[in-house]
């Protein structure tokens, strides 16, 4: 393995999307990630059919263990004894009942960074409840009423609390604990709740809404989604005056008599209609050509396949093919310790014998 986390061994217990996201991120940084899957009826053969490639399963090996058997628990603890990081996303109390909770794991390996990521955390009356993204966003204030419309904010299509708020925050906590271990020589438990992360990432918008008379930037006509003549879309994010002036210039709106003042929220409906009317006169790719070399905060709404071919993302090599499937590349680039392209997703239990033999041979 190559990358800044080369040599770091991670044990990921399968079972939740946030833990899978954490494993994918750490693998993309070069860590040796081993996922513990439920033991299947039989071990997969070399010709076993593979499911469609999934970015949240790539770049790791898989061992299959029966955690309801003493032998499976002992094997898990044996692997834990050689791990630097353990990540589990069980509901509170489950890992302890299985015998792989923090007390058992840290007794086996005092240097272990034990990560637990859950929806509501380990405390409180809701700790044991299911925590789907929409419920977490609602409870933490991220969907609070938009002052411009009086309606709750529409939730994003991405799993904002699960990935951006929860899993990414958990990765930060794990790496911070790993860094601290270099000074103390001791591991610790890192407890991250999706609700905590969702509350943090919505902080700015919450503070803005609390000021009487304020509007969110997403209410403004110079920050929104517009449909082109062919039914495809572009976004406008022309917040700065220079970008906004470039937008008006290239839409042919500069000098328009009676042009609504964007500093007056009362004029926003008329301004939005005017901008929308101009975009609706030509197809999306026409506007792509108009604005590609102009810094006006205008960008086309692309499919994943189109995104991979866009010159900016192609220059970053932002997408790679893994197992024949186009996937986002790991986002961080390192000039001195570049990481390898992640390998394809393993079959459950594909590497059981290999990993057990390899890790048992470690000192």
**Strand percentage, roughly?**
5-15%
Taken from the alpha-carbon principal axes, the silhouette is: elongated
* The level-1 CATH class of the largest domain: Alpha Beta
Helix content: 25-40%
Oligomer: single chain
H-E string: EHEEHEHHEHHEHHEEHHHEHHEEH
Write a compact overview of the structure shown.
The protein is an alpha/beta fold and 363 residues long. It is 37% helix and 15% strand.
Structural summary, described in words:
The protein has 363 residues and is of the alpha/beta class. It folds into 2 domains: 9-204 and 322-360, Rossmann fold; 217-315, formyl-coa transferase, domain 3, CATH 3.30.1540. The chain is built from 14 helices and 11 strands. The chain has helices at residues 17-28, 70-80, 94-98, 102-108, 133-139, 160-184, 194-201, 203-209, 241-251, 268-279, 284-291, 304-309, 311-316, 352-360, and strands at residues 9-13, 32-38, 61-65, 85-88, 113-118, 188-193, 223-227, 233-237, 298-300, 319-322, 325-328. The strands form 3 sheets. Strands 3-2-1-4-5-6 form a 6-stranded parallel β-sheet, with helices on both faces. Strands 7-8-9 form a 3-stranded antiparallel β-sheet, covered by helices on one side. Strand 7 (223-227) and strand 8 (233-237) form a beta hairpin. Helix 1 packs across helix 6 (160-184) and helix 6 (160-184) crosses helix 7. The chain is elongated and about 80 Å long. 33% of the residues are buried. The mean pLDDT is 89.
């Amino acid at each position: 393995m190559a990358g800044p986390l080369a040599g770091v061994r991670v044990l990921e217990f399968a079972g939740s999307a946030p833990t899978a996201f954490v494993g994918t991120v750490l693998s993309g940084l070069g860590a040796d990630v081993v996922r513990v899957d439920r033991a299947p009826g039989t071990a997969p053969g070399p010709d076993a059919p593979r499911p469609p490639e999934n970015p949240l399963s790539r770049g790791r090996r898989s061992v299959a263990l029966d955690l309801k058997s003493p032998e499976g628990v002992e094997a898990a603890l044996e692997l834990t004894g050689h791990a630097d990081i353990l990540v589990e996303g069980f509901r509170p109390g489950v890992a302890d009942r299985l015998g792989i909770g923090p007390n058992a794991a840290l007794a086996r390996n005092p240097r272990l960074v034990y990560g637990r990521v859950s929806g509501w955390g380990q405390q409180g009356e809701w700790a044991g409840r299911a925590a789907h993204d929409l419920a977490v966003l609602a409870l933490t204030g991220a969907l609070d009423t938009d002052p411009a419309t009086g309606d709750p904010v529409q939730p994003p299509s991405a799993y904002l609390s699960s990935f951006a708020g929860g899993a990414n925050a958990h990765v930060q906590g794990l790496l911070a604990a790993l860094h601290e271990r270099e000074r103390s020589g001791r591991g610790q438990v890192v407890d991250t709740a999706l609700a905590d992360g969702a509350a943090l990432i919505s902080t700015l918008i919450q503070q803005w809404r609390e000021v009487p008379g304020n509007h969110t930037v997403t209410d403004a006509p110079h920050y929104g989604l517009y449909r082109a003549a062919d039914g495809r879309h572009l976004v406008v994010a022309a917040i700065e005056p220079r970008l906004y002036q470039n937008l008006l210039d290239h839409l042919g709106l500069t000098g328009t008599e009676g042009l609504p003042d964007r500093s007056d929220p009362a004029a926003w409906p008329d301004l939005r209609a005017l901008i929308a009317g101009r975009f609706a006169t030509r197809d999306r790719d026409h506007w792509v050509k108009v604005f590609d070399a102009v810094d006006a905060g205008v960008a086309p709404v692309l499919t994943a396949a189109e995104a991979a071919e866009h010159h900016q993302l192609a220059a970053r090599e932002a997408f790679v093919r893994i197992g024949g499937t186009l996937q986002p590349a790991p986002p961080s680039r390192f000039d001195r310790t570049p990481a390898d392209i992640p390998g394809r997703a393993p079959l459950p239990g594909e590497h059981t014998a290999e990993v057990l033999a390899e890790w048992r041979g470690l000192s």
